[in-house]
Amino acid sequence: MIRASHPDDAAQVVPLIDIVFEEMEIPALQKMAKKDLYPVFEQAFLMKDYRYGYPQTHVHVNAAGAIDGILVGYPHVKEAHIDDAFQPLLPKVGLPEDKELFPDTETYEGEWYIDTLAVAENTQGHGVGTALLQGIEPLLAAQGQRCLSLNVDQTNPRAEKLYTKMGYQKTGELMIGSHRYNHMIKDLA
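Structure tokens predicted for GNAT family N-acetyltransferase:
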């Protein structure tokens, strides 16, 4: 089942977000022990306007009632300020408040951006990612969104194969942090 996330999902969602943090190799976050990192992002998850806040998150819930996948996204028009709410928490992850954890532009005008798609390791390859991608489309189309986008690390051909299968097409390349990504879009119209 796919549903919008709720504030009480924080403890289950944050480890899934961390899968992407690990892949991105963000130095400030890599230095932190999980026992210190997770409470910061659980607090951030409660922030309605933050990139990884619960309103931007949809979850896949398995038959046992556990969250085993997440899709985090937002429209391009929110990107410029999507991390503002996190600024006061930056010192808790070892950065000064005037820095940015995610300074790179990741999306373009007119796009609804899938920032994060993460699936628990024990359920990868079982259709959870596909279900999240398929499940979000009618919700966004009903809101009037016409173009979905995402960025896939060039070192992750398995993910790119899934996105291509789901109808996404590469439109360019960009750097996010120290990794090169393929920018992919899918028209909903």
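The longest helix spans residues 10-24.
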